[in-house]
Amino acid sequence: MYQIKTYNAIAQAGLDQFTPAYTLNQTDDADAYLIRSVNLHDQPLPKSLKVIARAGAGVNNVPIERATVNGTAVFNTPGSNANAVKELVIALLVISSRNLLAAASYSAKHTEADVSQRTEHDKTKFNGTELAGKTLAVIGLGHVGSLVANAALNLGMTVIGYDPYLSADAAWNISKQVQRAATLTAAVKNADYVTVHVPKNDDTVDLIGSAEIAAMPAGTTLFNYSRIGIVNNAAAVDALNQGQLRHYYTDFGEPQIANREDVTVTPHIGGSTIEAEVNGATQAARTIMTYLETGNVKAAINLPDLTVPFNAAYRFTVIHDNVPNMVSQITQKIAAANLNIATMANAAKQGTAYTIIDVDDLDHQSSQQLIKTLTAIPAVARVRLLTHK
C-alpha cells in the first residue's frame, strides 16, 4: 500500500487515477506528495518521501536540492496547462491590437442619454490594427511557445521563433512556416509583438532587459506569460516611458508596474482553467504511480531519464551521486549477495545518477540485508526494492 499526501485543491479527476493500492492523506510520512502551489521550502521532507509531483509547470515552490539529498524524485507536469496559456496569450493579442480594454473602459464610464451619438463620435480614438500581416516573435518554443506560434500563423501573422535549447521532439510540434532566428536580437528586430515562453533558471532571469527591448522596433507590445523575472520590469518601465514599448502584458505583478495604463497585469491566471487543472492532476497522479511501481523516470527535475521494461521478478533502484566507481560498488554488493543481474541500466543528470538493476531470485532476509548494505555506501541517497506485479 502506497501513501499519498495531497496539498491544495487537486482536481478529483486526478485523484480518481489512483488504484486501491494507494491511500490518500492518511499519514504525514507519505511515499508521495501531490501538490500545486504549497511552499515546501520551509517544511521538513520525511525520509519516507520517494516522489513529489507538482500539478503544474513551475517547481519554484519545491526545494530541489534538499529533495535530491533525501532521495526524493521531483516531477512537474510540462504541457498540462500549455493550451490554457496559449489561449490567453492569443486573446490578449487580439485585445491589444483592437484596444478593447480601453474601449470597454470608455463605454463603462459613458452611459448618459447621448451615449450613442457620443460613442459614434469618439470611437475613432480606439481604432486598432489587424493581426494579419503583423510579426510576432516567440521566445521559447516549448510546450506553450509552439502552440502560440502555430496559432498566430493561423491568424495570418508572420512568426519568428527563437529557442537555442529546442529539443528534437519539440521541433516536431512547430509548423515549418515558423521562421527560426539564430539570436534573440534577430528574432525581435522586426517584431510588432514579442511573447516570452521559457522556464525560469539562471540563464533566463532578465532574459528580456534593456538591450533586448532596445533591439525591438519602437512601439512593440511585450508579453510575459512565463515567470516573474524573465522580463526585467524596471527595463520595461523605462521602455514604456520612452515609447519604445507600446504596452506590456504580464501575469506577474510587481509594485513598479502597478497602476499604469500601458501595463496590463493579469493575476497569474495563465494556466488557470478547469481543463488545465484536470490535465495537471491526472498527469501528476500517473507519474507518481509509474515511478513508485516501476522506478522508471521520464522528465524528472532532479533525476535523469531512465526507462527499463520491468520483466524480472525484482528491481532495485538506486539514487546516488554521479561519481566514479559507483556502479561497480553497487554490482559488487549484489554479486556478494550471490544474486544474478538480469538487467542493469544507469544514467546521470549533472551531479546525480540513477541505477536500475533487475534480479530474478531473492528472498526477504537477503533483500533487507542488501538494501542496508547498498544504503551504507556513502554516495547513495536512496535504495528501493520493487516487486514485479
Automatic annotation (TrEMBL):
Q: Write the Enzyme Commission number(s) for this entry.
A: 1.1.1.399, 1.1.1.95
Transmembrane keyword on record: no
Oxidoreductase among the record's keywords? yes
Listed pathway(s) = Amino-acid biosynthesis; L-serine biosynthesis; L-serine from 3-phospho-D-glycerate: step 1/3
Could you tell me which Gene3D superfamilies the record lists for this protein?
3.30.70.260, NAD(P)-binding Rossmann-like Domain (3.40.50.720)
What molecular functions are annotated in GO for this chain?
Answer: phosphoglycerate dehydrogenase activity
Can you give the residue ranges of the ACT domain?
315-388
InterPro entries, alphabetized: ACT-like_dom_sf, ACT_dom, D-isomer_2_OHA_DH_cat_dom, D-isomer_DH_CS1, D-isomer_DH_NAD-bd, NAD(P)-bd_dom_sf
Assigned keywords, A-Z: NAD, Oxidoreductase
Catalyses: (R)-2-hydroxyglutarate + NAD(+) = 2-oxoglutarate + NADH + H(+); (2R)-3-phosphoglycerate + NAD(+) = 3-phosphooxypyruvate + NADH + H(+)
Task: Give the family per the record.
Answer: Belongs to the D-isomer specific 2-hydroxyacid dehydrogenase family.
Please explain the role this protein plays, according to its UniProt record. Catalyzes the reversible oxidation of 3-phospho-D-glycerate to 3-phosphonooxypyruvate, the first step of the phosphorylated L-serine biosynthesis pathway. Also catalyzes the reversible oxidation of 2-hydroxyglutarate to 2-oxoglutarate.
Name of the protein described by the UniProt record: D-3-phosphoglycerate dehydrogenase
Q: Which organism is it from?
A: Lactiplantibacillus plajomi
